[in-house]
Design brief:
By secondary structure, this protein is an alpha/beta fold. Helix content is 57%, strand content 9%. The chain has helices spanning 2-17, 19-24, 48-70, 82-88, 103-112, 139-150, 169-183, 194-206, 210-218, 235-250, 271-277, 290-303, 310-319, 324-340, 347-358, 367-377, 382-386, 392-408, 413-419, 425-441, 443-458; strands spanning 30-35, 40-44, 76-80, 159-163, 189-193, 222-226, 254-259, 281-285. It has a five-stranded parallel beta sheet with strand order 5-6-7-4-8, sandwiched between helices. The two termini are 16 Å apart. The chain binds adenosine-5'-diphosphate (ADP) and magnesium ion.
Length: 459
């Protein structure tokens, strides 16, 4: 459970600050324990240097995201003193020595985590124009993104980028924000995903802070809204957003959207808003060609100061199907396997790594095994899963277990229902629908499930 949560945190951190930071800093520390009442989270660092660096640079990320995962609002982050721990470990106890945080850091912390800014404001620095490979599939979106970066509001307002998942939309939005902020630190940039925007709006309504919410969004210079399709069917949020849009537009502030759908084809969006989406420029990104995929792989490898042969790059590019996120995933698996086994990155190795994962179906998997693995990723036990508990965490985990049982085995809904203490097949059906619905709403879940599947198949 601890490692599941920490893994989840690493994933979020990777999105926020990039894999290099995660590999260098976060992978060096570990989550030891936490306490809901005192709101303390205890981490362990290998040395004082790592500990101080984390405090100085990444405290806000730890508080916000680890806090969210552990359901502790704004936790106190403490480091287990490694020397104290070593000394007393013989007695099977360990103590946590609170680290004194310098005042400068505390101040910085307050700036970073004003409540309203909890979730946005972290631009992922790795998502820049310089790390983006341009090919025919994205050249229009790329050129438009550069144009609005150079001349915000002068050329295309709003800019609307659309395309399938994993094709580089988020990357481009961050690149625009990063570049504009690079040139002028005083420009107020807000990057927000539409589903977080919806949550923020709901929160504002509930706590009667709608005025503050509107003010916040109307007083910025550049608004980047990612995956705007998530506001569909949310009438009230759309209404609020409509006013924000008008205010910013009238004040000549640049707005950029991304979406998985062309504006005219978006469902559940008020017409007046939908028409505004195409007032400026609508640019699409589609699947890259094989050559572009190879170019992307080579660039990613070069950015890591590594090198792969053309035949390996071509192999990876032809064996990953759907999008660039998967392409990256495949590359990382190949590189990781090579480095773990201290082997060079050869075609042989790439074949071994990538074909292994597609041969899933040949292994027989039993329910017990799936449950055990699910419990590593979710805060519950095997007994909880098979119990009648309606605890929220347990219910989610149970749904996921049912979902994986259906997708990874050839057992029927009834078999699965029986296994969970004689539940009806329609209950299982409902669970599967729930998970599918959630996957649509939270792309991270899909990745989590994929990792879980991988664990089940190979672990
Ligand atoms: P989307 O938002 O469209 O789902 P992302 O922007 O999250 O996709 O891209 C998925 C991954 O692929 C990211 O890690 C991103 O850096 C990478 N990526 C996508 N397009 C490119 C590109 N043209 N050059 C380099 N990396 C890319
Ligand atoms: Mg995205």
């Amino acid at each position: 459970m601890v490692s599941g949560i920490w893994e989840e945190f690493l994933k979020i951190a990777r999105e926020e600050v990039g894999s290099r930071v995660v590999e260098t800093w976060f992978k060096a520390i570990s989550l030891q324990r936490w306490d809901m009442l005192s709101k303390e989270v205890h981490l362990k660092a290998p040395n004082g240097f790592v500990r101080d660096w984390i405090y100085k640079h990444y405290l806000a990320i730890l508080q916000v995201h680890l806090g969210r995962l552990l359901r502790i609002d704004m936790p106190k982050i403490l480091f287990v003193d490694h020397i104290a721990e070593e000394k007393i470990s013989g007695h099977n106890v360990s103590s946590t020595v609170p680290v004194v945080i310098p005042a400068s850091v505390v101040q910085q912390k307050n700036i970073l985590i004003r409540p309203a800014q909890k979730i946005f404001g972290y631009m992922n620095k790795n998502y820049s124009f310089s790390t983006f490979v341009v090919g025919p599939h994205n050249s229009l979106a790329y050129a438009a993104a550069q144009a609005v970066t150079e001349k915000p509001d002068k050329l295309y307002n709003p800019l609307f980028i659309y395309g399938g998942s994993g094709l580089g939309k988020t990357h481009l939005l961050h690149a625009i924000g990063n570049e504009i902020q690079e040139v002028n630190k005083h420009i107020a940039v807000v990057y927000q995903t539409a589903d977080r925007f919806v949550n923020e709006f709901i929160h504002a309504i509930r706590f009667d802070k709608i005025h503050k919410f509107q003010l916040k969004y109307q007083n910025i210079d550049l608004l980047l809204i990612d995956d705007v399709q998530f506001i569909s069917n949310k009438e009230q949020t759309q209404e609020a957003f409509f006013h924000i849009f008008n205010a910013l537009y009238d004040a000549h502030k640049q707005i950029v959207f991304s979406s998985d759908t062309y504006p005219q084809n978006m469902k559940g969006i008020a017409e007046r808003l939908r028409s505004r989406f195409s007032w400026g420029l609508v640019a699409d990104i589609y699947m890259p060609s094989l050559e572009t995929k190879v170019a992307i792989l080579k660039k990613k490898v070069a950015l890591n100061n590594e090198n792969i042969d053309d035949d390996v790059a071509y192999f990876i590019a032809t064996h990953t199907v759907s999008n660039i996120r998967e392409l990256e995933g495949a590359l990382i698996r190949v590189l990781a396997c090579a480095s773990l086994n201290k082997q060079p990155v050869t075609l042989e190795l790439a074949k071994r790594v990538l074909t292994q994962t597609t041969q899933y179906a040949t292994r027989t998997i039993d329910f017990q095994h799936i449950m055990t693995k699910v419990c590593r990723f979710y805060p519950c036990t095997v007994e909880d899963l098979q119990s009648k508990s309606r605890n929220k965490d347990v219910v989610i985990a149970r749904h996921v277990a049912m979902f994986l049982m259906k997708s990874l085995t050839d057992k029927s809904l009834r078999d699965i229902g029986d296994f969970f203490g004689g539940r009806d097949h329609s209950t299982v059906m409902h669970a599967l629908e729930k998970v599918e619905e959630q996957i649509k709403r939270q792309p991270e879940l899909q990745q989590k499930l994929r990792r879980l599947e991988e664990e089940i198949m190979h672990g």
